[in-house]
Each structure stands twice: as C-alpha cells, then as structure tokens.
C-alpha cells in the first residue's frame, strides 16, 4: 500500500509542473504591459523642457551673426556677392568657365565705350581673326589667340605680344574696372621640363600677360589670374581648327570697378600719369607682324618693310 501511495504522489508532482511555466509566462506578459503603458504615458511638459534645452545647447555653438555666408557681421564676401549665384557664360560665344566673384558692386566705366575704343585700337587683329571681342551686361572679354602671343608649348611672350598687350593696356589703364586674365589650352597633353600639365601652361601664360599689364601701369589691385587648362573648351578639340580656338588668353573686364582708398586716390590725382614708351616692332621673319602706329593703334602686315 505504501509503495502504491508513493507512486501516486510522484505522478501528481509531474502533473502540476505546468503551473511554474504558466506563472513565468504571466509574469512576462504583465511586465510587457507595464512597459507599454509607461511608454504610452508621456509627461509632455518634461518632454518639452528636454527638447528646449537641447535646442538651446546646439544654437549656442553656431552664432548666427559671424558666419561667412550670412548676411550680417564681418565676412569674407559681402551679402550681395555671397547671395549672387555664379552664372555660366553663353556657350554659343564664350567658354563654360564661371564668372569671377567681384567683392565690390560699384559700377565702373561703360563697357560699351571701352568696346568701341578697343575696336579702333585692335580692329585690324579682329578682322584677321586673331582677336575676338565679346560683351554682355557683366563682362567685356578680349580673346587673344595663343599663337599671336606665344610659341607652341611656351609661356614666354613673343615679339608681337608686347605691342598687342600695350594697345589693349592703353584702353584699360585709364579706367578702374576689375580685370581677370584667364588662360586656356587644348586637350593635347604636354609634359616637358617646364610644364607637366596643360593647367600649368595655361596658368603660366595668363601670368605672363598679367605681369605685362601690371608693368604697363595697370593697378595690380584690379588684376587677378585664372587658369582653366583644357577643362573649359571653347570649341571641339577633335579638329585642329577647334584646338586652335581653345588655345588662348582672355582679358576679361568687369562692369564693376575697384575703389581705391582715399589716400591712394589723392596720390593718384596729384601725380601726372605718363604713358610708357612702346617700341615699334622691328621687321622679322614671322608671317604676321604687328606695328604700333603713332596714333596709338596697331597695324598687322605680312610684308617685309624697310
């Protein structure tokens, strides 16, 4: 009897073990609902105070009055130039290079009047296709063929270059408009002991023209140099004619003027400006010769003159 009673007790123990698992499951369900309830019930006032504190902390790291691109405070660029987007030049007549940023927005001399004067000074070169003059509302560009100024693969000014640059300088020197000298090349790779890329060649050529303008008396505050290499082509590089059009130096005159400080303006007014003496080009064996005329213009010829 005792043995049978013990077996019956052991069987009941095995039958009641499911209660332990059930109790654990109910405990987990209760905990889950407690967590869900606590998440659902949010103290809006405390939540708002936390958000306000975080916003105030982040706003103190970036003062709104000292940013470079903001319209208030001391900046590298003024609000007008910072807000104005860089526009692309007309692809039909000009390169794809972006306009230069001019920090001051005071109008200078009329681009139309300068255009007319340049037409008289370098009209012969324009008719020969060696110089192109384009004008829009913002820029007057003077495109000088690289073959007119430099030998192939060189950044040293040739014999014709001083007279051409001097003729242009006589028109640009009396005004105060900003000037950007831009260098361009074709896509034919260059790698010699001086230049390792077309970018270096375009920069050196633009620098040579810029230094000539500065030597002829143009205020260096008005000048800047830009190099585009082969990456802003004016024409298709697949033809020799297109590559020749891409090899050039462009003198770009802005509609805006550089305003000299008061002290410099007084010195300039009290000093009589003297034009530099430009020697007449001697005859040479090149096909194209540029001769400076007494009236200030230039003449091109292919004849050998005594």
Q: What's the gyration radius in Å? A: 38 Å
First and last CA, distance: 150 Å
Largest sheet: 5 strands, mixed
- CATH architecture descriptor text of one domain: 2-Layer Sandwich
List the strand order in the largest sheet: 1-2-5-3-4
Protein architecture, described:
It is elongated, with a radius of gyration of 38 Å. The protein is 41% helix and 15% strand. The protein has a five-stranded mixed β-sheet. A two-stranded antiparallel sheet has the order 6-7. The chain contains eleven helices and seven strands. The chain has helices at residues 2-15, 18-40, 44-59, 79-83, 111-121, 123-127, 146-149, 161-172, 198-215, 240-246, 262-270, and strands at 131-135, 139-145, 177-184, 223-229, 248-257, 289-292, 298-301. The model is unreliable at 61-96 and 277-286 (pLDDT under 50). The protein is α+β, with helices and mostly antiparallel strands and 306 residues long. The longest helix has 23 residues, at 18-40.
Write a compact overview of the structure shown:
The chain has 306 residues and is of the alpha+beta class.
Mind sketching the topology for me?
Blueprint: H1 2-15, H2 18-40, H3 44-59, H4 79-83, H5 111-121, H6 123-127, E1 131-135, E2 139-145, H7 146-149, H8 161-172, E3 177-184, H9 198-215, E4 223-229, H10 240-246, E5 248-257, H11 262-270, E6 289-292, E7 298-301
Parallel strand pairs: 3-4
Antiparallel strand pairs: 1-2, 2-5, 3-5, 6-7
């Amino acid at each position: 009897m005792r043995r049978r009673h013990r077996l019956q007790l052991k069987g009941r123990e095995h039958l009641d073990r499911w209660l332990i698992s059930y109790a654990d499951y109910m405990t987990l369900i209760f905990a889950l609902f407690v967590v869900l309830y606590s998440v659902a019930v949010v103290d809006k006032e405390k939540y708002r105070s936390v958000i306000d504190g975080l916003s105030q902390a982040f706003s103190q790291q970036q003062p709104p009055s000292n940013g470079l691109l903001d319209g208030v405070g001391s900046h590298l660029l003024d609000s007008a130039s910072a807000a104005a987007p860089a526009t692309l030049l007309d692809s039909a007549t000009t390169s794809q290079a972006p306009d230069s940023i001019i920090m001051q927005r005071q109008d200078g001399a009329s681009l139309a009047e300068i255009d007319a004067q340049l037409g008289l000074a370098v009209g012969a070169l324009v008719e020969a296709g060696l110089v192109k003059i384009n004008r829009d509302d913002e820029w007057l560009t003077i495109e000088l063929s690289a073959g007119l100024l430099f030998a192939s693969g060189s950044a040293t000014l040739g014999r014709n270059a001083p007279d051409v640059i001097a003729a242009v300088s006589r028109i640009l020197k009396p005004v105060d408009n900003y000037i950007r000298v831009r260098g361009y090349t074709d896509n034919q790779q260059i790698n010699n002991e001086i230049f390792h890329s077309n970018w270096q060649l375009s920069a050196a050529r633009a620098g040579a023209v810029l230094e000539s303008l500065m030597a002829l008396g143009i205020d260096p505050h008005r000048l800047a140099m830009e190099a585009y290499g082969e990456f802003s082509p004016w024409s298709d590089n697949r033809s020799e004619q297109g590559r020749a059009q891409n090899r050039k130096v462009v003198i770009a005159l802005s509609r805006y003027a550089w305003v000299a400080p008061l002290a410099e303006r007084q010195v300039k007014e009290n000093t009589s400006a003297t034009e530099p003496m430009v020697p007449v080009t001697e005859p040479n064996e090149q096909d194209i010769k540029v001769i400076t005329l007494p009236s200030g213009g230039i003449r091109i010829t292919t004849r050998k003159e005594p």
